[in-house]
Design a protein that fits this description.
- With 273 residues, this protein is of the alpha/beta class.
- It starts with 58 loop residues before the first helix and ends with a strand.
- Helix 3 links the parallel strand 2 and strand 3.
- Strands 3-2-1-4-5-7-6 form a 7-stranded mixed β-sheet, sandwiched between helices.
- It contains 7 helices and 7 strands.
- The radius of gyration is 18 Å and the shape is globular.
- It has a single domain, classed as Vaccinia Virus protein VP39 (Rossmann fold, 3-Layer(aba) Sandwich), CATH 3.40.50.
Amino acid sequence: MGRSRFILQGRGRARSCRPFLDNIIGQEDPTPTIYLMAFDEKYFSTHTYANITFAKYSMYWWSNRFYAILARRYGKRGARFLEVGSGMGHLTGQLEDTFETYGMDLNHWAVKQSKAVVNKSRLQTASAQELPYQDGVFNVVIIKHIVEHLPDPQKAIQEIGRVTEKGGILILATPNLDSMLKPWKGERWIGYQDPTHISLKRPAEWLAYIEEAGFKIERAFADGFWDVPYIRFVPKQLQKLFFGSLGGLQAITGFVFLPVTWGESVIVIAKKQ
């Protein structure tokens, strides 16, 4: 796709928040590698975020609610939860009533903004490819729409396997190259609209990475067809109702039923062995 020029812009040191509990956070690497992409305050108003609103009952709000349902369903109440790529902190903050919550993101600006959203969560600026936590300390790890941005997503998944406890849960989401309607969109497909999507892969490859990191796949499914319009000359609102109804039903109810090819994102739930 000619997107490799966005992979690396330099190397630098992670800027960390205050040190956390020694039995959770490992010693800071004196020279950690951070892949500095164009992830700053501008990112949240450009590319796939350009038309997103964070308001209650928006698609973004329903999405976070759905992932919170999954985390509560599969995780243990009171256990440690980590969101890798916590962004503006909305999902991590939403789960503070259920878990001991941790969030980390490469975007220092987003981590700073998150502090207005969370109350008890421990936030840190760090790379998904070099998680600053000790082995086996998290019961639930969510990484949604992050791996496609990484130069080495397999390393990030291995890192998640390292910090997840036995029996713990990974919930991963990423653009779906096997989307049944992707050919209808062609180069206009949502996964191609963000130039920082440098690691787009087919679901089978993601599943292999997850299994190699020590997880057993519990569920793999899609999120529905929400990237309207799919058909020319048909109003977008009508297409939202027609194409998006099943994905909307899944998101609202939390009942997972869409096959892997029936959506623009693939979502995987896996258990650490």
